[in-house]
């Protein structure tokens, strides 16, 4: 098996199209054409993690965070990033980072937090824009069924809990081929009118290449008329953060005690308690100060995230409780998600969950 086979599976789980623009996801070192000896799954790729991969005969590290985030101007081992990258390069260890592609997945990072808290009625806190596209094409009536089925098989026509969704409008199409044409229907040089079906269906943007390939292969015409547009609709299954509800409301202190125990954090920094019960909970793994207003506007009683600064806590403004549970702590279950997924898809391949503690923050 090649490393690219594992990458394909990872990108089936979390397509890189949905990663944030600022991020650096994908294969960071090594070659996708290398034969894979094993995959080590980690939250961060440090030098110690590369050592662990070498020791366990894993030439692929599947990392949540990208070790290369901003541009590297030199590689001389002067800092922890360069040392990890150099060691990986010297020992032919490939590093693949998935980061915000998984952050934005409905079953990704934030869903794992909700799982630990047993939240119900979950939904995306900040749905991502421009992720849904629409295809319009025109097909001879006799071939419409074949083309529709090909597009459905490619993943088009799925909306929420429904699939095989399309809109079909019958009408007359016209065309005239020039002397270099080879029309399937009609004669070159003569205007032809054909009973056609206008087929319209939506599809997720990461499937555009696959959907268009299915269209071209199934369509009978020499020249296929079609249009693809990007919709403004929010994608309710892709985006940052998540909000859900406790099955039974809890007091603020009882809930915070529970969170502290589940995530094993040394302390929870929080805004002023409001002396109100907790029912609706918003979460965003990692740095989430940018979503404070979104959580408040969604009606959350408490917002769990990390990396809140001094002035961020003022933004609570008696609307909700802000709780900083730690960056590592909020994302720690992500590597279990990735490990389980890879083991399920590659049952006879060595997938190793890293036991290196990469949390840089300690509590006294």
TrEMBL record:
It comes from the Bacteria. Pfam families: DUF34_NIF3. The keyword NAD does not apply. Keywords: Metal-binding. The keyword S-adenosyl-L-methionine does not apply. PANTHER family: GTP CYCLOHYDROLASE 1 TYPE 2 HOMOLOG, NGG1 INTERACTING FACTOR 3. Belongs to the GTP cyclohydrolase I type 2/NIF3 family. This is GTP cyclohydrolase 1 type 2 homolog. It comes from Salinimicrobium flavum.
